[in-house]
Structure formats: C-alpha cells, structure tokens
Amino acid sequence: MKSLTKCKDDRTRRSLYVFITDEPIKQILGLSDSDEIPSNQLYDLLDNRWRSTKILPEVSLGKLSSNLQKNVSFVLQDVQIIGGRLALSGGGVIKNGKILDAELSIDDIGTLNYLTGEIQGGVLSTQLDSMPLAFEILEDMSIKVKTNVVNNHVSIDIDAETSGRISEDWNEQEDSFTDKYNDQRLKAIEAEIQKRVNHLIKKLQTDVQADAAGFAEYMRVQQPDFWDQYGGQWDQYFTEADITYSITVIVEDFGTKGSTKKMQ
C-alpha cells in the first residue's frame, strides 16, 4: 500500500519535500549509500530535473497542505529502492485527500511534465524513417493555457514551446543542411510529444478521473464565476472537458552534425 514520506528532519518545516512510496519507510530513511543521508539523496535526485523529463517539480509540505485545503487533485512522485539505491519512479495521484489506486508510470510522469510545461531539460527519443532520433531539450519549456466555459462545458487549450538540439540521428540519409529534411525531423519530434500527451490526457480523464495536471488553478484564475459555483466538482468537469494540446519545437543546433543556424 502506498504511503507518504517526507525528507527526514529534526523539525517539521513546511518547506520539506513530500514523496509517496510503497516501500517500508524504515528502509527508505535507513538506506545508506557512501554514508550519505537518505534525505540528501532525494534532494540530489530532484536536482537532476535539468537532465531528465521524468522528475516532477518538488512538492513541499506547505504545498501539500494547500492542495489538500483547496481539495484539488495533484501528483506526488514515487520513491523506490532499486539496486540498493533510492530512485524516483512513477507517481501517485491524490484526490479528495486519498491516494488513488490508479497510478502514473515513470513515462507518464515525463509526459505530464510536457503537458504542464514543467521541463528544464532531458532527452526525447523517437524515430524517423524507422531510425532512432533523439532531441535534447536545452531550455525551460514554456506553455500558455487558455480556458473557456460555454453552457457549463469546459474547454482547455494548451500551446507549448520547447527548444534544443538534435543529439542523435541514425538515419544514413541525414542532411542537416536541407530544410526539407529538417522539417521532417521537427514534425517527427512534435508528433511524438503530441502522441504521448494525447494518450496521457485520455488516461487522466478516463482511468484516473482526476485533474493531476493542475488545470484547476487556471480555471480558478481565468473563470472565477464558474469556479466559485462548481470548483468543488472540478474533477468531474475535467473528465468531460475538451482538451487540446499543441507543441512547437525549435532546433537551435545539430550537435556534431550539420549547420548551426536557428530554425523553426
């Protein structure tokens, strides 16, 4: 059974980070690796967000308390012991103050970050002409979220943008000097992100049935009248909402291959 744990400290502070786990807490906080304190290992893992898309932004005890008071759904990252070391895994969804049976996989976590724009770096792997293609994100991702309500039916439009470089391209016909080929790579990368996000949105609406992406805050700010009346039923409205997501990828360079001109 999943349980909550926070970084160990001699005093409870609202700035402490909170995780979820099905490991015995005694084993989590008693794990020793080169005499490093287990809680410090968790801090170090969170610091890797600039190199991995599959790490959620930290959730402090204060933010946890605020979410519970607002009665909005949210996600906590799972902590596991893998190979004798602490590792961040998937995530548990908290709804109405309870941990849902429906869980998010580690890949779902990565996709959730694409949906919410909470990405500082990492590598996206896909294929072009059945050959491996890798895109490395070099800067923070940005998103714009627009909500609308017509006859109590909610629509949410997300426009995302990310930039980076082509870190791997195994296509023997690769030619970074031609706009046609570069357009094909861009479309392949954007299509991969789009496919993953659409799959996750469907999972959140049908399987999880909870707004684990945090769109509640956008609704509260952009649609205050609706929120005042129906905010307490938001997860139900979320499951029925029309959600669209679009992504723009900007390639700033091509690693060791091709040109270094910026293109979109």
Q: Could you list some keywords that capture this structure?
A:
Spore_GerAC-like, alpha+beta, 33% helix, GMP Synthetase, Chain A, domain 3, 10 strands, 3-stranded antiparallel sheet, 2 domains, 5-stranded mixed sheet
Description:
By secondary structure, the protein is α+β, with helices and mostly antiparallel strands. It folds into 2 domains: 1-104, no CATH class; 107-264, GMP Synthetase, Chain A, domain 3 (2-Layer Sandwich), CATH 3.30.300. 33% of the residues lie in helices and 33% in strands. The chain contains 8 helices and 10 strands. The chain has helices at 25-30, 38-46, 61-70, 106-116, 179-208, 215-222, 224-230, 234-240; strands spanning 3-6, 18-21, 74-82, 85-95, 98-104, 122-128, 131-137, 142-150, 153-169, 242-253. Strands 6, 7, 8, 9 and 10 form a 5-stranded mixed β-sheet that branches. A 3-stranded antiparallel β-sheet has the order 3-4-5. β6 and β7 form a beta hairpin. α4 packs across α5 and α6 crosses α7 (224-230). The longest helix is centred in the C-terminal third of the chain and has 30 residues, at 179-208. Mean pLDDT is 88; it is low at 258-264.
